[in-house]
Amino acid sequence: METGRTPVLRHVVLARMKAGMPQFTEQFDVVVVGAGHAGCEAAMAAARMGLKTALYTLNVDLIAQMSCNPAVGGIAKGHLVREVDALGGIMGEITDAVGIQFRLLNTSRGPAVWSPRAQCDKQAYRLKMRDVLESQPNLKIKQAEVADLIVEQSSAPEGAILASDFPDDRRLTTDDRHVVTGIRLRDGRTVGAAAVIITTGTFLNGLIHCGEQQYPAGRSGEPAAVLLGEALKQLGLRGCRLKTGTPPRLDGRTIDWSRFQVQPGDTDPTPFSFRTRRVAHHESQVPCYIAWTTPETHRIIRENVHRSPMYSGQIHSVGPRYCPSIEDKIVKFPDKITHQLFLEPEGLNTHEIYVNGMSTSLPVEVQMEILKSIPGLENADMLRPGYAIEYDAIDPTELERTLETKKIAGLFLGGQINGTSGYEEAACQGLMAGINAALQVKNEAPLVLDRTEAYTAILIDDLISKGTNEPYRMFTSRAEFRLHLRIDNADRRLTPHGRRVGLISDAAWADFEAKQQRHQSMKDLLDRTRLTTAMIEQIAEVNTDCVGPGLRPGQAEQTTATANHQRPTTNDWISAVGQSLAQLLKRPEITIERLLPVLRELAPEFFDTEDIRSNPRESAAALSSSLRNELKSVETEIKYAGYLLQQERAIERLKKAEQRTIPQWFDYGSVSGLSREIQETLVRVRPRTLAHAARIPGVTPAAVSLVHVFIEIQAKRREQAAVI
Known about the structure:
Elements: H1 5-18, E1 26-33, H2 37-48, E2 53-57, E3 71-73, H3 77-87, H4 91-98, E4 99-105, E5 115-120, H5 122-134, E6 139-143, E7 146-153, E8 161-162, E9 178-185, E10 190-198, E11 207-210, E12 213-216, H6 226-234, E13 239-246, E14 249-251, E15 261-263, E16 288-292, H7 295-304, H8 309-312, H9 326-332, E17 340-345, E18 352-356, H10 364-372, E19 382-384, E20 387-394, E21 408-409, E22 411-413, H11 423-441, H12 455-466, H13 490-501, H14 506-528, H15 533-540, H16 555-566, H17 581-585, H18 596-602, H19 616-621, H20 625-639, H21 641-658, H22 676-685, H23 690-694, H24 701-723
Parallel strand pairs: 1-2, 1-10, 2-6, 9-21, 10-22
Antiparallel strand pairs: 3-5, 4-5, 7-8, 7-9, 9-10, 11-12, 11-20, 13-20, 14-18, 14-19, 15-16, 16-17, 17-18
């Protein structure tokens, strides 16, 4: 990655701005365009890093609007939110404050794939986010439409011009030295900025489809960003057209709730933020409900699928593969006789219900027929119909790892504009764009995470290496070392980075260091303590299978009844006498909760804030989620120590490969043996290392080997030319 050109260009531009060319209505260090989940994180990061920041949005009343499901987290997405929080972002804390149902998913599987999820109060989320933004020093929120970008070619004496002034036959290349110097608003005002971050979500030339009807919009009831979309095209940034959708919303008062299976939250919710001790609605969580489609539902969809814009040819763009519409499910999985739906509340002060799993763009009257075919929804009143939306995105291979565009210095992109889907994917990009824009303005080294240390880095690396032809969604399977990238250790992986850039306060850092000390002390205690027969007596009488992570109401009694028949007796553990507690913990049937009576005696300071009961089993059940999560993190590292060691060795090998850099001056065209297709791909992506090149689709191992050889050949030629 080229790191030298941006500060040089920035110096040139700032010098000209000080000389009075051009004149701006206002001047900021960082300007963020769009106040969705990416924009909020970007603006907060830049402001908290001490820079004068402005956040521009079309409507200040809809900051952080949850356009689709008002839920945060889920499989892999929960990992992203934890990472945002560990770096100093705000999504996790906002969710803990307004979440109305919390669930820890995948607890029946290994800890690598445990993921938190929360159903949020939709209105409370945006109100809380706005309150946080408005109380942040250095940050100003502005309601205005951004119509254009102001750019400058550093070698051009005439100074700044608008992106829309570029003729259609003049497109920027990576050899052009252009830099963004500000934005122009639709009302004619110009705003200067040392860095601009675009986070426009689905608003760029957005087009809504509902049956045969279609109309321009960024979201239902909100205008599309047409002028800015055209301005970005004029800059020559390669674009693509993507599609997403949303399901209908229902009036909960018209639903027969007795017909559905109840899905409650966890009795002791796991917070998203490492800085949250207890979620706000711990005692007032609301249930969700599970519904099912019927053969009649499928018949209605099959008979009307030709009216869906996706199948009529009205929509040509690609939607998210892993979040298909209901009509897609019926067409692509004709053998399935039923599909699951989730009825999820949109807030505590509304009767609006989100029908998760029923995203659709079928005509409104067909949507009504579908709803009436589902038992319990026969009389449901539809408040808002579902729809599909097409929008412009930028090919993410146009970006550096910092999320800065390669062609225009100082211009950063984050969120759905980069081809991703989901609030969580947007938030982590917004945070990284905000951090790197601020670091660039401060003339400091960028923060570039390695894909071995964060899902956030995997997402960015995938995007800039491979691009995407459909909305990108994060999965745990995308990680090569997912046991290393767990939700419980996100702070150990990333909080030092957040501290370095200035996003972790002194108080939060002190809490982090204290937690790491507790973690290490507990591991040391388990390693050095030998099991005695007295300890076995204490351990044997504890049955804690019913108090593990992700427990939901009603599970305890069922689990206890099963466990009482399978619980090991004192005699089963006699052979373990003399072993360390850490060795005992490696047994599959032993969890750290079983060791609580012993640990409470050996390390009372670890539990000094906990309610200790005389009955060991009750004492285990009283353990708070925060402390239990700390203990489970220790257990995971002990139980999976062998696997973690293997992954650490593999990570070291990968890091060595990543250190084999490809110089910016490297000429792919002179590498004999590379096909034209591979040459064009490598020139377009400009991989920074051999490992990066190997991850690019279509680039073969043989091609990577050739590049490796020719790096040495071209380097020697350059040395010889320099001598001559």
